[in-house]
Amino acid sequence: MGVETVTYNDIIDCINNPEVLLIDVRDPADIADTGCIPTSINIPLCKVQQELKQSRLAFLAKYQRTKPAYSQKLIFYCQFGELAQEAAEIASSSNLGFMNVSVYKAGFSEWKFKWNEFDDYVDPERLKQQERYRNF
Predict the structure, then answer these.
(1) Overall average pLDDT of the 35-39 stretch
(2) Coiled-coil annotation: which residues (predicted)?
(3) All domains of the chain, ordered by start, with CATH?
């Protein structure tokens, strides 16, 4: 059970795909400063295991997204890929058992560089909505 690497174009393709869950593992303060990839949720690396073990109802209440099935595609990202790789290994471990796990190793730094309209794609309302469901 290996962890795949995805590209910028893969991320573009999956933004509006409800079958793919994009997970930003950076700290919330970093996201507040730089933004995030549309449709992603924030689960800081230190909470990945805890959050992916939550009940379906708790996950839905916190993230307003359905908890992923073990076969659902999960893509982890961070600023440069190192934290995302660690999160992917946690999710695909025998302890959690997610089977379709990928990493966007180029991370948010590449996304920000390649996305021409950076300021337009970050949805401040979505960030506010996500902030309401965090219990840090």
Answers:
(1) 91
(2) none
(3) 4-132 (3.40.250.10)
